[in-house]
User: Fold this.
Amino acid sequence: IAKRVGALHLSIYAAPLYLERFGTVVHPEELDGSAHRMVGYLWEHQNKPFPYALRRDKERVSLPGRYGLAVNDGNAYLAAGEAGLGLVCLPAYLAKEAVQAGRLIALFPDWTMDPMPLYVAFHRSKHTNVRLRVFIDWVAEQLTQVS
Assistant:
């Protein structure tokens, strides 16, 4: 069984070093056909980066996916973004510390992305374990505090 416990709100971020080298980006369309690069995140079983799309009112822009590097680990992804290797798409909670420390800057503040749903999966049984229910409730509560 999979129970939805929340959603992660995503934004695009860049390191100050990256912006110094490649220039500031004001509109997502500037990424198409430019020198700008993304750090790709390889999702399990797909072995290719996930295409991101941004919305503002009725405008919708898909990020071109020009990747200089692709990884399959969240820590490596964050580190690559902080090192200025490309733009990264991160959940707000994961980027928060780096933004506060000045290692990342949020781009396109007036644009939104579809939130990433988050589920807890568990084995179906006749009697759901009380500890499991408490854990699921705790995870859901934690997500409301960070998203």
User: Anything to note?
Assistant: Residues 74 and 125 are 32 Å apart (CA to CA). The first strand starts at residue 2 and ends at 8. The chain has four helices and nine strands. The first helix runs from residue 16 to 22.
